[in-house]
Amino acid sequence: MLPCVTECHDSGFRFPIVLARSMIAQLIPIDGSPPITLNRSLTIVGRKADLCDLILENASVSKLHCAVAKTDGLLFIRDLGSTNGTKVNGQKVTRGALLPGDELSFANVRFRVHLGPSPESGSQNTGEILESLEIPPSDDDGSGELVGVDSETGLPFLSDDLE
């Protein structure tokens, strides 16, 4: 989760430093089985125990089915060429971002996505501001040449090399 700008002065920015407490990412099985907490930054999902972090013992799930990446409080998925596909809210995807409450399916094994405080805690207080961090103004005039766009994020690549 990116912090909000709380102050802007002299072209510098002040950001709060936030400590997240009780922030978890879970896959909650639709069939009522216990939730699966995603503790790793990258979780490989599939049937093959020696290759996967999350093993789903279901014949419709591929040996290497999907990768789930956790970063900055967000979850991203990438299908690994599975036979029966990965779906988000019923739509087959090759990659994408997950939102709280999304339904994620590996073949016919379905989960509800939970991001935030533990469902058992019921706590809405997920972080506290520790201090502010000042980002000093840059001597850079902000000019640059657009050299491309990242196909995954849609963010521009800029070059400050204008020779």
TrEMBL record:
This is Glycogen accumulation regulator GarA. InterPro entries: Cell_Proc_Reg/RNA_Proc, FHA_dom, SMAD_FHA_dom_sf. It comes from Thalassoglobus neptunius. CDD domains: FHA. Residues 116-163 are annotated as: Disordered. SMART domains: FHA. Residues 43-93 form the FHA domain. SUPFAM superfamilies: SMAD/FHA domain (SSF49879).
